TetR family transcriptional regulator (Muricomes intestini), 199 residues
Amino acid sequence: MKQMTELQKKNVLRQSNKESNALTRECIESALVLLMKEQSFSEITITDIIRKAGVSRASYYRNYSSKEDILEKFLQKITIEYSNALTKYDPSTESFESWLELLSRTRKLAPQFKLLLQAGFGEKILDRFIAQCNKSNNESNPYLFITNCYTAGGIYSVLSQWVLSDMEIADNTIATICSDLMMQGLKNPVKCALVEDND
């Protein structure tokens, strides 16, 4: 059997380190999700996270600079999944399929999505959704810009409320309703009830 060259050994070691770091990140992310079921994000310390994850402080800081950094990575992951879902189908002709894809990807990332919402990152998620919808458009086309903002806001609202309600409504039901709305618009606009000020 041929001996490995130094370069091959380094490549094996690099791959091993990469896999080790990926496992460490997975443990840390899972630990934060579990801790958020017991405490608010502001109460959780890095010490709490590393204890729950069973990793060293050095391993933690090799992967994350702060606990907010974990949320930022979640946000990046959700944005990538959202972007991939929207580009897989043409929303103007395959709206139902597009919604099913969005819901399927959201279901997989529901713990992270919910954690971001509970940690007050909802506005950041919405900002990313809006930026993603307007990626190929600039504000010089106001109609397209406003349409994209409106669409992103609707998608964010549906997905966030769905996740917060533990995804009780079936994917097909949401996809049917939302694709109808996207293709035909609101037939019977809902009038929001005004809350009276009793003071």
Q: What stands out?
A: The radius of gyration is 21 Å. Residues 6-35 form the longest helix (30 residues). The mean pLDDT is 84.
